[in-house]
Amino acid sequence: MIKRTLQEVAGMIGVGDFESQHSNVLITGVTIDTRKITAGNLFVPFKGERADGHAFVEEAINQGAAAALWQSNVPNPPMHLPIILVEDTLIALQELARSYRKQLNVKTIGITGSNGKTTTKDMTASLLSLKYKVQKTEGNYNNHIGLPLTILGLEEDTELAVLEMGMSGKGEIDFLSRLAQPEVVMITNIGEAHLQDLGSKEGIAQAKLEIINGLKSDGCIIYIGDEPLLQQYFEQYNGGAVLKTFGSNTSNDLYPTHISQSDDGSCFKVNISDREFKLPVLGTHNVLNALAAMTAASFYDISFEDMNEGLSKIKLTNMRMELLQGKKGERIINDAYNASPTSTNAAIELIANLPGYQNKILVLGDMLELGEEEKEYHIKVGESIDPNKISAVFTYGELGQFIAEGARRVFPEDRVYSFKEKQPLIVQLQKLVNQETIVLVKASRGMKLEEVVAGLQE
Asked: In what residue span(s) does the Mur ligase N-terminal catalytic domain sit (predicted)?
């Protein structure tokens, strides 16, 4: 992580006339949260609508922070403390990350997509770790605040950094890409997430394609070739980067020739290797994420013969196809971190076709940020569930009731349950589970369906 004197930090963020008795104070790492302070941190406060982080600057330093930034329009700066006055603390954080990035020899891989970017990040980092010192985005630090913090957390001898890039609107990924200066960029897919803000899948595709704006001129673009919107764009591409595709279709550079599922993961083969690969993660969609990661690893001269070792060591971020066990012996797939129609349908397909279970139950919640047609998207998910393969459907939330409405068009009434509170849902669900049951829990993050998972385990 960044280790610089306060004088050096001031120069990196453009404070040219910095003079202080604390100039030689050494900062080690950066934090924006007083609950996460470690000794030597630079604390960066933000002035928000409800709370002002400047009120905690003195507390942060008492807890071990070496120094802090202070926004100049906030009154009464504690000049007796090691602080740097800046016009805007967020911009200062971003500029510090930009300067630090330029000082590093690290190569970066940028990953975006409507679904699967976090899982693909985890897989890519695991494969690259076979040969290099690798760091990756932790948690969901993938936005205009999180990415600068991730960059500032890079060790100076890190060789490759795998960076997730998220967005809610146009221009955000452009900023992140130019900040990270990636050598490789990856687009996992174009789905329905952020339709509310971007209006159409075409708008989403254009926003995701901003990731190439910061790409090194001789870099590599890895994208899912099954997506027509990306195909159309790259047919006209005349830049200097190498193009590599992955996906289900045989027209891709890398595609699966065989996939089989079991409750401990997936086995698959690909078109350019005789080996069978074992992925300790469920879902055909995650096999495609693995293909993206394998393409990136191949670009960095990791052989397909060695990739099984990297795949076996994958450590996924929590609540992404996480396989758990309930107190009655039922198996639970906790995929409650996020949801869109595309990712939800993929998870349902996985459960429907997973062998070894007599009782298959879906617990589905609201899929958020889908725009004006959100009701129709939820109904279509419910209608698409196969009653011959799924035993029961539980829904939660205001929009979840539309999944139930769609499901009732194909299911008997007594196999569809709709709730607006979690506790009665848990109580009813517990009546139906046993050792021959597998339960999928899937919704957007705001629905907090991990509470249902916890209810099954208590």
From this structure: 27-101
Confidence of residue 192 (pLDDT cuts 50, 70, 90): low
Pair 62, 110 in one domain: no
Residues 302 and 164 in one domain: yes
- Domain residues for the domain of 57 are 3-92
Task: Say whether both 341 and 366 belong to one domain.
Answer: yes
The pLDDT tens digits for 121-154 are 999 999 999 999 999 998 778 899 999 999 999 9
Does residue 214 have a known ligand-binding role?
no
333-to-229, 283, 354, 427, 429 alpha-carbon distances in Å: 31, 11, 12, 18, 14
Domain-located, residue 424? yes
Based on the domain organization, do 116 and 264 belong to the same domain? Answer: yes
Tokens matching residue 134 = 């690798």
Q: Which residue has the tokens 């740097």?
A: 84
Was 119 annotated as part of a binding site?
A: yes
Examine the domain organization and report whether 330 and 185 are in the same domain: no
Kindly state whether residue 427 falls inside one of the protein's structural domains.
yes
Give Rg (Cα) of the chain: 24
Residues 271 and 291 in one domain: yes
Q: Are residues 233 and 344 in the same domain?
A: no
**Of 259, 324, 319, nearest in space to 290 by CA:** 259
Does 113 appear as a known binding residue? yes
Q: Which tens digits make up the pLDDT trace of 98-120? A: 999 999 999 999 999 988 888 89
> Is 63 found in the same domain as 129?
no
* CATH of residue 386: 3.90.190.20
Q: Is 117 annotated as a binding residue?
A: yes
β-partners of residue 278 are 267
| Residue 306 near residue 130, CB atoms below 8 Å | yes
pLDDT in tens, 51-84: 899 999 999 999 999 999 999 999 999 999 999 9
- Quick check: is 97 in a domain? no
Q: Which residues contact 233 (CB under 8 A, 6 or more apart)?
A: 205, 209
70 phi and psi angles, rounded to 5 deg: -145, 125
Out of 68, 92, 116, pick the residue that ends a domain: 92
Rounded Cα gap, residues 312 and 170, in angstroms: 37
Check the annotation: does 116 bind a ligand: yes
User: What is the value of pTM for the model shown?
Assistant: 0.82
